[in-house]
Specification:
Structural class of chain A: alpha+beta
Shape of chain A: globular
Strand order of the largest sheet of chain A: 1-2
Distance between the termini of chain A: 23 Å
Order of helices and strands of chain A: HHHHEEHHEEEEH
Oligomer: homodimer
Number of helices of chain A: 7
Number of strands of chain A: 6
Radius of gyration of chain A: 18 Å
Strand content of chain A: 5-15%
Largest sheet of chain A: 2 strands, antiparallel
Chain lengths: 142, 142
DNA sequence: CCGTATCCATTCCGATACTG
DNA sequence: CAGTATCGGAATGGATACGG
């Protein structure tokens, strides 16, 4: 009676959910994208118990989202850094932020501080509204 | 010793996670976006036990992601339909799909069947790469 | 076919104490 | 500061049986 795993699922959404489809992982990635690196920073920001934070960080490292780099400054301990794969989650975080963000202070900005938004574009670069988008046939989803 | 809730968190990512930050909810939304409407369809597609599927559906309805509409064809039972808010999750699903989608058959397409992708654009409509995007200052995140 | 109710195993979470 | 160890309670997940 094990928990069903979607790791091998053909649907990429399911595979993603397997990795970041829980509470803490996404918030950890959010903080990492915001520049946090140290165990203590995450703990303070998230308010999670150390044991569970420890477990999540380990899992994220195992999944290739984070990596531990020796140390930037002093400490004998390493820092948690997003891998390229992990940085790819920016799109997911951004989408969640936009969705939950009506009337909030969430912001994405480019290097010059200009606001950035997520958009759907079709091949030629034409903007597409969500109502006009379809997922592939169901058979392609699983 | 209750589970901490992020529903009131100032960060929209956290609030979103509160609603769809679990396994099943996102997959249910995925299926709903793909056109599934009936209890049985979800159950078959997800392989989830009926009790937990029931609970998730109820929660998603309570959160305004799904609604129950009388019936399209025959049955005395209703169908689960995405609300406007729920359809907004397409961006999230799309992001997850793109992220987990290297070499898979996941597709988004517009009405004409042309492929659609998620992109980051700054104000003027200029494309921005993920590496060039920053989240607001940490203080804005929580 | 659409759920609800029950039972049990597992996993998760929070607090705290402890080590280096 | 950065974790590991342990513990109790809560929520989740799976199977199955039952009722509309």
């Amino acid at each position: 009676m094990k928990r069903t795993s979607f790791a091998k699922d053909r649907c990429p959404v399911a595979r993603s959910v397997e990795v970041v489809g829980d509470w803490w992982s996404l918030l950890i990635v959010r903080d990492a994208l915001a520049g946090k690196k140290r165990f203590g920073e995450f703990q303070k920001s998230l308010g999670a118990a150390k044991n569970i934070l420890s477990g999540r960080l380990r899992k994220l490292v195992a999944d290739g989202v984070l990596e531990i780099v020796p140390a930037s400054d002093d400490s004998a301990y390493g820092e948690y850094k997003l891998t390229a794969k992990g940085r790819g989650l920016l799109l997911v975080i951004a989408a969640l932020g936009q969705w939950g963000g009506a009337g909030s202070d969430f912001r994405l900005q480019d290097r010059n501080g200009k606001p950035v938004r997520l958009e759907l574009r079709s091949e030629g670069g034409r903007k597409v509204s969500p109502e006009d988008v379809r997922l592939g046939r169901s058979s392609e989803l699983r």
